[in-house]
Amino acid sequence: MFFPNAQRMKQQMTDAVQVHHSPAYSSANGAEADRNWSVVGEKRVKKLRKLVGISDPDSLPSIDAVIVDFTKVSHFDVTANVKMHEFVNELKKYGGKQLELRLVAVAPNVRARFERAQPGWNIIDGGGYLEDAEKKKGDEIRFFDNMRDAISARTYADIASAVEEKMKSEHKEDV
Predict the structure, then answer these.
(1) pLDDT digits (tens, 9 = 90+) for 69-98
(2) Is 146 part of any domain?
(3) Which of 9, 44, 107, 113 lies at a CB distance of 3.0 to 4.6 Å from 76, suitable for a disulfide?
(4) Which residues contact 153 (CB under 8 A, 6 or more apart)?
(5) pTM score, whole prediction
(6) Is residue 175 part of a domain?
(7) Is residue 139 one of the residues assigned to a domain?
């Protein structure tokens, strides 16, 4: 991923998410003027959905995580970093703030680029979570060694739900 292909890669990943998943936006989430995407973008997604045979967008699942296989990525430059940040921001606007980006099989030299990148990334290895919000220095990204682990790892939403349930049950015991 580098300057000649970074925009195309970002667009392909964004299209894949928007074509096959429903947005977090609903009439309950705000006024029409607060939409997270443009009318032109909506028309593009509608056309792409038609091309792949999706006729009922209301039946599409929501999205909690995007997993990107970095096995073939041997170089990652500044432009790719900027486009990945844009991708994460668009993902969170489309799928909600809880949406996670997970990268699989990141080469050591590519990881070093993520670590040195400005603006910075909150890199979280494997199943770990960034527990202290004050440690955040940028967009969160989770690295996994293999696809199986990336797919089976619990999402932040799952963890938050489990913690909330535990707190409710402890509160009931206290009362």
Answers:
(1) 999 999 999 999 999 999 999 998 888 888
(2) yes
(3) 113
(4) 102, 126, 127, 142, 144
(5) 0.79
(6) no
(7) yes
